[in-house]
Amino acid sequence: MNCCMSTRDILWYLVFTGFAVNYMVRLNINIGIVSMVKNIPKSNNISYSNTCVQTVISNSSANSTAPTISITDEPKFDWDAKQQGLVLGGYFWLHPFFQVAGGVMAQRYGTKLVFGVSNVMQCLLSFLIPLLAELDYRALIFLRVIQGIIGGVTWPSMHNLTASWIPPNERSKFLSAYMGSSIGAALTYPLCGLLISWFGWPSVFYVTGGIGVVWFIAWWVFVYDSPAQHPRISEKEKKYILDCLGKTVTTKKPPIPWKRLLLSRPMWMNVMAQWGNLWGLFTLMTQAPTYFRFIHGWDIRMTGLFSGIPHLCRTTFAIIMSTFGDYLLRNNLMARTNVRKMATAFCCIGQGLFVLGLALSGCNSTAAIVCLAAATGVSGAVSTGALAGFVDISPNFASVMLGISFTVTVIPGFLSPALVGFLTHQNQTVGQWQIVFLIVSFMLVVTGVLYQFFATAELQEWNSPADEKNNHELGKLEPLLTTKSIDSIIKEDQNSLEHDIKHNKILIN
After folding, report:
1. Model confidence over 184-202: pLDDT tens digits?
2. Whose CA is closest to 289, among 279, 304, 309, 278?
3. Among 82, 126, 318, 483, which is most buried by a count of CB atoms within 10 Å?
4. Residues β-bridged to residue 324
5. pTM to 2 decimals?
6. DSSP assignment, residue 458?
7. How far apart are alpha carbons 448 and 325 in whole angstroms?
8. Other Cβ atoms closer than 10 A to 6
9. Under 8 Å CB-to-CB from 55, ≥6 apart: which residues?
């Protein structure tokens, strides 16, 4: 198995596909709901003033009574924008409160178990979505909440595996595997669009759930929590990994220094950058189908195809940036902190500027898709920026810190759909969507600028509390040992001198 690629390469592919599956089951309902709910309400129930669809509807109504936006599968549910927002946002309601638990569980039970089981359980629950949607939208919200709870432990658990397997100068490239989430999103939109047009919207949840079950089988067979546990890794690769990691990662995890960790400025700078990045990413991912449907009048297949393109851009940019970042580190061309700041400038500031372009694109659908693709694309630099920063400052507690980060930064996942629902409910206009995107742009630029001033990627002292304590105690004993040694030497010299004097007296006599 290892003659063709290293164990780390195999791990990269399984992590990549694992995150793709994670986002498939998280996002399948975002495209499915477009066909699940009934078509655009009549113009007397919803404002179309200053919207790109207005002209199309006006022209079509003069010649035909057929609806402008066609959805192949017959919509079944009469859910308004607020109810749809609850269904989409339900996943995130309790999701934040299980992030830290995911990091701690990974330290105790290993990433193989925590990440693998949580992923496959979400997939199995996906099979139940059509049934519960038929019962009541509130039953569907309940299922989404359960999925969110289980999904809360997935992302933080992966940093424990990264810290245990990946040498410091390869972290950026390996963390690009996390961008499998974007490929999952990119595939979900067109795949679900085709499934809906061929087999109806329930097929979306059966197919994506089935893909997740197949992935879990491969994950369970090939993944181990550390090089020492892997039965098929070569001795050469194992030695290389362990030598590179050195003492930064301990075999037995030390107690979590909660106070030092929670008061750590470097950790909170990474959290802040993640807040801005994920506010933008969640908004663009979850709302893109609705935005293009209502504002630009695209049907389900066009929405699925073009909504997936930005995520392909994100993965591509992540791989390019991470390769470049690791190259700079391996050749000592840039300090680790500066590499992280450079990447975060692309991820947050660059993304914010492209979202600003999206806000100003108006009815120009070409400009809108270009800005959306570019904004989502540069967000992939997070694998070389703040996401890697957690492992840099403390490999031993990286999963716990990522859990804290997602406890805070998953909040935009339910705030964003609620805000969009509030701003666009029965008011699907270019102006309202412009407000949505201006808020996103502000969040991104401000967090990106602050990161440039206050972030660092240096290894923190509290990464190894036991070593720090021993060094501190040794430091306190050193002066005592030195004083004691000097006193002993003086006393020994005096005794020796007295002995020599006595001995000489005896000889004289």
Report:
1. 877 887 788 888 888 888 9
2. 304
3. 318
4. none
5. 0.78
6. P
7. 18
8. 15
9. none
The 3-state secondary structure of 227-245, one letter per residue: CCCCCCCCHHHHHHHHHHH
- 335 sits in the region (left: phi over 0; alpha: psi -120 to 50; else beta) called beta
Using CA atoms, how far apart are residues 158 and 72, in angstroms rounded to an integer? 39
Closest listed residue to residue 355, CA positions, set 449, 438, 268 = 438
For residue 123, give every residue at least 6 positions away whose Cβ sits within 8 Å of its Cβ, in sequence order, or none: 21, 25, 208, 209, 210, 211, 212, 213, 216
Q: How far apart are CA 164 and CA 5, in angstroms?
A: 19
Q: For the beta carbon of residue 481, count every other beta carbon within 10 angstroms.
A: 10
* C-alpha span between 101 and 400 (Å, rounded): 8
pLDDT (tens digit, 9 = 90+) per residue, 330-380?
A: 999 999 999 999 999 999 999 999 999 988 888 888 888 888 889 989 999
* HEC string for 14-81: HHHHHHHHHHHHHHHHHHHHHHHECCCCCCCCCCCCCCHHHHHHHHHHHHCCCCCCCCCCCCCECCCH
End-to-end CA distance of the chain: 89
Q: What are φ and ψ of residue 383, in 5° steps?
A: -65, -25
Helix (H) or strand (E) holding 120, with range, is helix 111-126
